[in-house]
Specification:
Radius of gyration: 35 Å
Oligomer: single chain
Structural class: alpha+beta
């Protein structure tokens, strides 16, 4: 024992051990949050080439969404998905439930296009045309018009509640809600004729389902674009999670040139950065302030980045003011950044095998789908047997089978059709062979078929019905079915 340890030897308690400390805290409840507390993001408005293109896409997509239901085509709504009538109208094309294959083809084309665009230039869909991005841009624009720019919004939120603050907040939310309800109304207008829907809104005679979907879609727009915003992109959207599987080292992504920008630091415009050992990044933080998801692109590519290129526009403006070359933050590839490739060298890697395969499949599927849509016969026939009896003996000893033909006229004009039957010797119809089907409608046509008792083998015999338009012989369909002969 050392002389200066005498105090301890005289009865001073030793310092607590780790085990003693654990025992002392045993029984103390500690609350640990498993979720990150959200930090509200106030994106700064930015102008530039990419911001302009983003707003062009906002106008195009919103113009299509809000405008298409009001267009007329052949005295009806140009785009209408009539769920009750089970007919979909897309300009001059009339689709029925039997045309579900076209929806499958459209989904395949959308998936391939997403893969192609992502392989070429990252998250172009997310940054420019995704509804979440588009509606968030609109809601932010409304917020800025009412509450002011970024600094004013931060100051307003941190200030205590007052009459002025309440008025601005109430006005903002009133506009948001009105816009969201208009969005819900337009959405329902794709499934219920929008003129009829508008009349029901004016007279307060909306049905329960129409009311539900207007409110539901409006609430979703209000919540996602007004409050959740980047949370949808970061935590709810699966695309952000699997996008890296579609990237490679030749994918154009938004990158920060650390070799040129580091070490970062503030300086006067008159100072040569090389003379003071600095890079071209002045550490202004504008790239973070304009980011809608609040990330710092200088930390490298992150899954939260939606590829909006707002940081590119902001950094280019700073570079212009400082008199430096643009492109400190830019669209580049991993290979391009590592090998200092020129723009022409980057573009030469765009048409790599992966991109060519995606493009080839996409073009082939699109051509096949469009060809099938525009060359299809606007007539469908389904043969339904009478379930009451397989066959029966009628006058003169003839054998009769009864069918119902479900005839679907996909043309937007009434048509007269003629039905014929063949397949057995002496087979004939014992019902009117001519009938009319209204435009874009279907009709069940009862048909009685008779043959001599020795015309076929006992049991099932194959016959064919042919339905032909009287005004156009090329509009014809032939369907096979069975004719049952009784056992002898």
């Amino acid at each position: 024992m050392r002389p200066d340890d005498g105090g301890a030897a005289a009865g001073t308690p030793p310092p607590p051990t780790a085990a003693a400390a654990a025992g002392a805290t045993r029984g103390v409840v500690q609350e640990v949050s498993l979720y990150e507390i959200r930090r509200k993001i106030y994106p700064r408005a930015v102008s530039g080439w990419f911001a302009t293109w983003r707003w062009v896409l906002v106008w195009i997509t919103m113009g299509l969404f809000y405008g298409l239901p009001w267009l007329s085509w052949n005295d009806r709504q140009a785009v209408l998905f009539g769920l009750e009538a089970r007919r979909f109208f897309i300009f001059g094309v009339v689709l029925n439930p039997q045309d579900f294959i076209y929806l499958t083809g459209l989904l395949v084309i959308s998936a391939l296009a997403l893969f192609l665009f992502t392989a070429v230039a990252g998250r172009l869909w997310c940054g420019y045309a995704c509804p979440q991005t588009v509606y968030t841009e609109i809601f932010l624009w409304i917020e800025a018009r009412i509450e002011g720019n970024r600094n004013k919004r931060i100051k307003l939120d941190s200030a205590p509640m007052s009459r002025a603050k309440f008025g601005r907040k109430a006005a903002k939310h009133a506009v948001w809600i009105a816009f969201s309800l208009w969005t819900g109304f337009t959405f329902v207008g794709y499934f219920t004729p929008i003129g009829q829907l508008a009349g029901q809104v004016v007279t307060a005679s909306l049905g329960p389902w129409q009311t539900f979907w207007i409110l539901f879609y409006g609430f979703a727009t209000y919540g996602n674009a007004g409050f959740m915003r980047e949370q949808v992109c970061k935590y709810m959207c699966p695309y952000a999670r699997f996008q890296s599987a579609m990237f490679d080292k030749d994918t154009l992504i938004i990158t920060y040139d650390a070799e040129r920008g580091e070490p970062r630091g503030a300086r006067s415009r008159k100072v040569d950065p090389a003379a003071v050992g600095l890079g071209t990044c002045i550490d202004c933080g504008l790239c973070v302030e304009v980011c809608p998801t609040g990330i710092d692109i200088r930390n490298g590519l992150q899954y939260e980045c939606i590829g909006c290129a707002g940081c590119v526009d902001a950094c280019n403006q700073v570079m212009d003011k400082m008199g430096y070359e643009r492109g400190l933050i830019r669209y580049d590839t991993t290979h391009g950044l590592e090998n200092h490739w020129s723009r022409n060298q980057l573009m030469a890697r765009v048409f790599r095998p992966r991109v060519l395969i995606y493009s080839g499949i996409l073009v082939a599927v699109a051509i096949a789908l469009l060809t099938h849509v525009f060359t299809r016969v606007p007539l469908k026939v389904d043969v339904i047997r009478d379930r009451g009896a397989l066959s029966r003996i009628v006058e003169d000893g003839l054998v009769e089978n009864v069918y119902r033909l479900q005839v679907i006229n996909s043309a937007e004009m009434a048509r007269q059709y003629t039905v014929t039957v063949q397949g057995l010797d002496g087979i004939r119809l014992d019902s009117d062979p001519q009938f009319t089907v209204e435009p874009a409608a279907n009709r069940l046509v009862p048909v009685r078929v008779r043959v001599m008792p020795d015309a076929g083998e006992p049991g099932s015999n194959t016959i064919e019905f042919t339905v032909t338009a009287q005004d156009d012989p090329e509009v014809t369909r032939t369907e096979s079915t069975s004719f049952f002969m009784p056992r002898r």
